[in-house]
Amino acid sequence: MSKISAIITSYNEKDSIIRAVESVVSQDAGGIDIEIIIGDDGSDSETLDRISRIEEKYASDHVTVSHFVMSRPESGEPVIPSIRVSNVIKRGLFAATGDYCVILSADDLFCDNRKFIKAVEFLDSNPDYFSFVSGFRFIGESDKEYIPYVPSSRLFWAHFDYFHVSCFVFRKMKTEMLLDRFCDDTGLVYSILKCGKCKADSSITFEYEQKRGGITRSSTPCQLLIIEAMIFQDILNDKNPVSGFKSATYSRKYGFMKELHAHRTELNDPRYEYLLNNSRGYDNDIAGKMASCSGAGGNLWYFFFLLRMSFVHFPVSVIWRICKLFRGRSEK
Fold it and tell me: What integer pLDDT is reported at residue 218 of this predicted model?
């Protein structure tokens, strides 16, 4: 009998975490055992009390529920939410005992109760595949749906600017395959895809809503660009690379690199010093180099770096369009 580990990240989300847990417990598991691991990032006592009650309420013959709490830094010490969440997810993955894993935030939910069984049945029958991805719905201004198309894991990574990690069901991976620091949405999707083939399913199984206090809405454009640069840095410094994925990253980040260059004069704003400090000391410090990108030397570095990226980006774009063209013909 297969077992799936659902890792739920939480931080002061006492009003929504039950909904997330219920979206896991209500899965039509078809005999699949479910392990729920709630990774809490040092929430207030009300949230922790609710998590303790959840452990008692939802445990059953085929569902186990446990949690852990990460300590918070000293008051006033700046933190990078992406790194905090990454540490929670990595600890949850280390603790997971299931054959397969899914990741979910406490304020999101699975909206298809057959998500688990469809993924597990496919992966059980196809050992050459590492992951199974389905679509998601962005709840907000547009309620737009995102449907995955995966002609290959490398092309999927190179083309999609964003795809939520909660859409993936994946085999438990070796811990060394995870990125060093950034293992929330983007970094974990990279880690999953580089581990093997991915099967796409067009059904919508996940609903996602950006929180008002979330990083996307509460950060300035320049802050978001620096964080993207740090993820880029982490991938370029990957200690366990897989052939083709760094090249795919160059293609993926081509437009981002030009945008970062356009904001280079803002990078030295004192508000962003703590972010740049978190990039220094690591190889491939994209944000740091761009912050000092002035004069002939800096511009020359940027030109050759962008040129290197363009040699990958444009051929990959052509291949992607050809794949989409043949896909369209095969669906007629």
Answer: 60
Distance (Å, rounded) from C-alpha 157 to C-alpha 133? Answer: 13
Range of the domain at 285: 219-330
Give domain status of residue 201, yes or no. yes
- For residues 73 and 42, is the Cβ–Cβ distance under 8 A? no
CA–CA separation, 190 vs 110, rounded Å? Answer: 21
Return the number of other C-beta atoms located less than 10 Å from residue 42's C-beta: 16
CB 148 within 8 A of CB 167: yes
Considering the chain, what is the average pLDDT of its residues? Answer: 89
What residues are paired with 8 via a beta bridge?
38, 104
**Short-list 109, 134, 124, CA closest to 27:** 109
| Total domains present in the chain | 2
Residue 214 lies in a domain: no
pLDDT at residue 215, as a whole number: 54
In a shared domain, residues 194 and 224 = no
**pLDDT, tens digit, 9 for 90 and up, residues 100-146:** 999 999 988 999 999 999 999 999 999 999 999 999 988 776 678 88
What is the separation of C-alpha 167 from the centre of its chain, rounded to a whole number of angstroms? 10
Average pLDDT over residues 140-163: 86
Task: Classify the phi-psi angles of 180: left when phi > 0, otherwise alpha if psi is within -120 to 50, otherwise beta.
Answer: alpha
DSSP sequence for 229-275: HHHHHHHHT-SS--TTHHHHHHHHTHHHHHHHHHTGGGTTSGGGHHH
Pairwise CA distance, residues 13 & 39, whole Å: 12
DSSP-derived letter for residue 172 is: P
* Contacts of 212-219 spanning 24+ positions with Cβ under 8 A: 215/81, 215/82
Q: Tell whether pTM > 0.90.
A: yes
List residues bridging with 146 in a β-sheet.
136
pLDDT at 238 > cutoff 60: yes
